[in-house]
Design goal:
The complex is a heterodimer of chains A (195) and B (550). Helix content of chain A is 50%, strand content 0%. With 550 residues, chain B is an alpha/beta fold. Classes of the chains: A mainly alpha (195), B alpha/beta (550). At the A-B interface, helix 1, helix 7, helix 8 and helix 9 of A face helix 2, helix 5, helix 9, helix 10 and helix 11 of B.
Chain lengths: 195, 550
C-alpha cells in the first residue's frame, strides 16, 4: 500500500506519454478532406435551416469547430453538428433559441462591425471564446456540440458515426461477445468466461 | 395479455396498488394470481421491451423514462429555501415496471447484521438508528424467491449471508474493469467477488439471457433479460385475468370513509381528468419519495398531518446511500461499455469497524460508469487537468473513452429527522399536485465512510496499475435514486408508519411496501431487499385477507 504522500502526489498526475498520436482513431479509406467536402456540399444542398438563419448557422458551426476542431481526425464540422443544433432548436430545445440568438449577438458585438465570428481566424475565434468560456451561453454551446457530435445520427449530427469512430465506440450495434478488452482477454483468453 | 377489460370505477376492487415498480409489480402478481381483483396505477406510460432503445440523448439527458419530474425541489437543511435543480433530486422512472426497468441490476442481499445493527452497536445520538422488526432469517425465503422468480445471476462471496438455495444461474463473465479490480484487490490483500445481478445469464422462466449490449444503467432492456417487474412479474399478473395495469394514471389522493378506512383512490387520467377508483384495500408502492408525498397529500380532518401519519414519521428518515467515485485510466483498451456495468465487487469494508472512528460500511465496485456512453464520458468523465474544449480535450476523449473505468463506493446512510420528503409550499408538478420537496444533508459519518472508501478506491486504482486516477466531485448528496426509509416499519406506532407486516398503524386496510419501508439503508444496493419485502408483504396480506382482518 502506498503512503499518502505518494498517493496525493500521483492523484492528479497526468501521463502525457499516454496521449500519443498513434493511439488516435484513424478513419480507414476516407480522408478527412473528403469527409469535409461531403459535409460542405451537404450543407449547400440543404440551404434551408429549420430554425437558424444562414449567418447564425455559420457562427454556430464555427463555435462548434473550435470546441471539437478538425485535426488529423474529423471534428464537429465533418460530423454535421450544426444540423443537430438546427434540428434541436426547432424542436425540443426551441425554448432556448432566443438564448442562443442573444448569445450569438453578444459574441459578434464584441468583434468589429464588419466581421462576424465565423469570419475570424481560428486563433482569433479561440481568443474570443476564451473570453466567454465561463458563460452560460458557452456552456450551452459546448453541451450541444457534444450532443451533436455523439448523439444518434437521426438527430442530424454524428454523421456516418464520426463521433463514435473517433472514440472507438462501436455504438449500438452490439450483442457483444467476449473478450471485450485487453485485460479480460489477457487473463481469460478468447473464452473470456470464468465459469 | 395487456387487453384485460378495465375494472368498473364504481365497483370496489379488492386491491388498488399505487405504483408498478419493484414492489408494486410483485404485489400485483402475487395478489392477482391468488384470485384477488387488482388495479395497478402507474403515472408513466405502458412501455414494453420493444419500446426500449439505445438513444443516449433521449434516455440520459432528456429523461425519457423518468417522465415528468416537475415540481421537485431540493435543499440541504430546513433553514434554506428549496429550489428546482436541473437534475431531479428524487430520481426514479415513470413507466410500467418503475425504476426496475432502468436500474443497473446490482443485486446484493442484506446480511444478518443489517437488520439488528442498532442492538449490536448501541444508539447513535441525533439519529433514528434502529433495528428492523424482522430478521434476515425471516426474509431469507423471500430473497430466494427473488433469486428464482425474478431471476438473479451470481455466485456466493466469502462473507455473504447464508442462502437456502444456490443462485439459479452463474454470474456475468468478468470484464476488464473486474480484472483490474481483482488485480488491485490481490495486491492490497482484499477480495473481489462476482457481482450478483438482476440480469439473466441463462434463459430463465421463458425469458432470454443477456445479449451484452451494454445499455443497462438508466436504459430499459429491449430483450427482457433485465429482471424488471415489467419483464418478470407483470405479464403473470395480467395473465391471471384479475389485474388491470392502469398506466398514465397519476394518483393524487387516497380517500377515507367515515370509519377512517381507505375507500377510494383519486387520480388524473391521461387526459388530465379526475377519476376515482373504489377499492376494499389500498397498497402504496410508489417509491420512497412518492409514497410519503401521496400520504401527505391525503390529509383530512381525521388525518390532519397526512394519512397514516399519527407518528409524524411519514417522509422522515430519507436515506440515499452515500457514494464516491474514483475514475482511472489504463494503458490498454478496456472497452468497458460492452456488457453489464459491474462484474466484481469488494465487500471487505461491509462491516462497521470502530477503529475507523465513525459508523458505517459499504462496498466498492468496478464499472465503466462515465465511460459507458460517449456523451456521458465527455460531460462527466474528463480528468481534472485537461481544458474543457479544443484539440487537447478532443484528443483526451478520443484516447480515454475505451481506457477509462471507475471505482464506485456505496455506503450506509443514517436515518435522521432532518432528511425528509415534504410538500413544497409553492412548487407544483404538471398535474397541479404539490411539489416533492427533498431536504437532505448526509450525516457526517456517512460522508466520512464515503471518504474512507474513496481513499481505498484510490489505493485500488494505484495497485491495479492505473496511469492516472482522480476522485470525482464527491461530497454531500444533492439527490439520489435510492429512496429509502420514509415510511419505516416498526412495532411501535409512535416511531414507525407500518407494522412488521406492512400494514399502516393508523389505517387497517392501507398497506405500504417499497423503499420507504426500510429501517436502515443497507450498504448501497437496496432493490433486492425491496423485492424480497414485497414477496413477504404479499404473503402477509393474503394471510390477513384469509383471516378476514383487512
Amino acid at each position: 500500500m502506498n503512503n499518502n504522500n505518494e498517493l496525493s502526489r500521483r492523484r492528479f498526475l497526468f501521463s502525457a506519454s499516454a496521449l500519443t498520436a498513434s493511439t488516435f482513431v484513424r478513419l480507414t479509406g476516407t480522408s478527412v478532406a473528403a469527409i469535409a467536402q461531403a459535409a460542405c456540399s451537404a450543407k449547400e444542398s440543404s440551404a434551408a435551416f429549420r430554425s437558424l438563419s444562414a449567418e447564425e448557422a455559420a457562427d454556430i458551426e464555427a463555435v462548434a469547430a473550435r470546441i471539437i476542431p478538425t485535426t488529423e481526425t474529423p471534428g464537429a464540422t465533418e460530423a454535421g453538428v450544426v444540423y443537430f443544433f438546427d434540428n434541436a432548436l426547432a424542436a425540443d430545445m426551441n425554448v432556448r433559441l432566443d438564448e442562443v440568438r442573444a448569445g450569438l449577438a453578444r459574441l459578434n458585438a464584441a468583434i468589429g462591425k464588419d466581421l462576424r465570428f465565423a469570419e475570424l481566424s481560428p486563433g482569433a475565434q479561440d481568443a474570443r471564446l476564451r473570453e466567454i468560456e465561463d458563460s452560460e451561453f458557452f456552456g450551452l454551446m459546448r453541451e450541444m456540440t457534444i450532443f451533436g457530435f455523439f448523439a444518434m445520427s437521426k438527430y442530424g449530427g454524428n454523421r456516418d458515426h464520426l463521433g463514435w469512430q473517433l472514440v472507438g465506440f462501436e455504438g449500438h450495434n452490439g450483442a457483444w461477445e467476449y473478450p471485450f478488452g485487453h485485460y479480460d482477454e489477457e487473463v481469460y483468453g478468447g473464452a473470456g468466461d470464468v465459469e | 395479455m395487456s387487453n384485460n377489460p378495465p375494472f368498473d370505477l364504481r365497483e370496489p376492487v379488492d386491491f388498488a396498488i399505487v405504483g408498478s415498480g419493484s414492489a408494486g409489480g410483485i404485489l400485483a402478481k402475487e395478489l392477482s394470481t391468488a384470485g384477488f381483483s387488482v388495479v395497478v396505477f402507474e403515472q408513466g406510460p405502458y412501455r414494453k421491451a420493444a419500446d426500449f432503445g439505445h438513444d443516449e440523448l433521449s434516455t440520459l439527458f432528456r429523461y425519457e423514462l423518468n417522465g415528468d419530474l416537475s415540481g421537485q425541489t431540493f435543499r440541504h437543511t430546513a433553514d434554506q429555501s428549496a429550489t428546482a435543480r436541473p437534475q431531479p433530486p428524487a430520481e426514479y422512472a415513470q413507466t410500467v415496471g418503475g425504476s426496475s426497468t432502468h436500474f443497473t441490476g446490482n443485486f446484493w442481499r442484506f446480511r444478518e447484521i443489517d437488520f439488528k445493527e442498532r442492538s449490536v452497536l448501541g444508539p447513535i445520538s441525533g439519529t433514528n438508528f434502529a433495528d428492523w422488526p424482522i430478521s434476515y432469517d425471516e426474509l431469507e425465503p423471500y430473497y430466494t424467491r427473488v433469486d428464482w422468480e425474478i431471476g438473479v445471476s451470481g455466485a456466493p462471496g466469502p462473507n455473504d449471508a447464508p442462502r437456502s438455495r444456490p443462485f439459479p444461474m452463474p454470474p456475468m463473465p468478468i470484464k476488464s474493469s473486474g480484472v483490474l479490480l481483482e488485480r488491485g484487490a490481490k495486491k492490497l490483500g482484499l477480495t473481489a467477488q462476482p457481482e450478483p445481478h438482476a440480469i439473466l445469464t441463462r434463459p430463465h422462466n421463458g425469458r432470454p439471457a443477456c445479449i451484452r449490449c451494454g445499455y443497462c444503467m438508466w436504459f430499459g432492456c429491449e430483450v427482457g433479460a433485465k429482471s424488471s417487474t415489467l419483464a418478470a412479474m407483470i405479464p403473470l399478473a395480467e395473465a391471471s385475468g384479475n389485474c388491470e395495469i392502469r398506466a398514465e394514471s397519476a394518483v393524487f389522493r387516497i380517500e377515507t370513509d367515515k370509519q377512517g378506512r381507505a375507500s377510494e383512490v383519486l387520480y388524473y387520467d391521461a387526459a388530465g381528468n379526475e377519476r376515482a377508483q373504489k377499492a376494499r384495500a389500498v397498497v402504496v408502492c410508489a417509491n420512497g419519495a412518492e409514497t410519503p408525498r401521496l400520504l401527505l397529500m391525503s390529509a383530512s380532518d381525521r388525518h390532519p398531518d397526512g394519512l397514516a401519519n399519527s407518528s409524524g414519521f411519514v417522509g422522515r428518515n430519507l436515506m440515499f446511500n452515500a457514494h464516491c467515485v474514483v475514475n482511472a485510466i489504463f494503458e490498454q483498451p478496456l472497452n468497458d461499455y460492452k456488457g453489464v456495468q459491474v462484474t466484481r465487487i469488494i465487500h471487505d469494508f461491509y462491516d462497521n469497524d470502530e477503529s475507523r472512528g465513525f459508523y458505517g460500511g459499504g462496498g466498492i465496485d468496478a464499472r465503466p460508469l462515465w465511460s459507458a456512453t460517449p456523451i456521458l464520458h465527455s460531460l462527466m468523465g474528463m480528468p481534472p487537468d485537461v481544458p474543457s474544449w479544443g484539440a487537447a480535450w478532443k484528443d483526451t476523449i478520443a484516447h480515454n473513452f475505451t481506457r477509462q473505468m471507475s471505482f464506485v463506493g456505496s455506503t450506509t446512510s443514517l436515518a435522521q429527522d432532518s432528511n425528509n420528503i415534504t410538500l413544497d409550499p409553492v412548487a407544483t408538478d404538471r398535474w397541479g399536485r404539490p411539489g416533492l420537496r427533498v431536504t437532505y444533508l448526509d450525516h457526517d459519518d456517512d460522508l466520512a465512510m464515503a471518504e474512507f472508501l474513496e481513499d481505498r478506491a484510490l489505493e485500488l486504482a494505484d495497485a491495479a496499475g492505473a496511469l492516472q486516477y482522480w476522485p470525482f466531485e464527491n461530497g454531500p448528496s444533492k439527490g439520489g435514486a435510492h429512496l429509502l426509509g420514509t415510511c419505516r416499519m416498526g412495532d411501535d406506532p409512535n416511531t414507525s408508519v407500518i407494522d412488521r407486516d406492512h400494514r399502516s398503524h393508523d389505517v387497517p386496510n392501507l398497506f405500504i411496501c417499497d423503499g420507504s419501508s426500510f429501517v436502515t439503508s443497507g450498504r448501497g444496493q437496496p432493490t433486492m431487499t425491496i423485492m424480497a419485502l414485497a414477496f413477504r408483504a404479499a404473503d402477509k396480506i393474503k394471510a390477513a385477507a384469509a383471516a378476514g382482518t383487512i
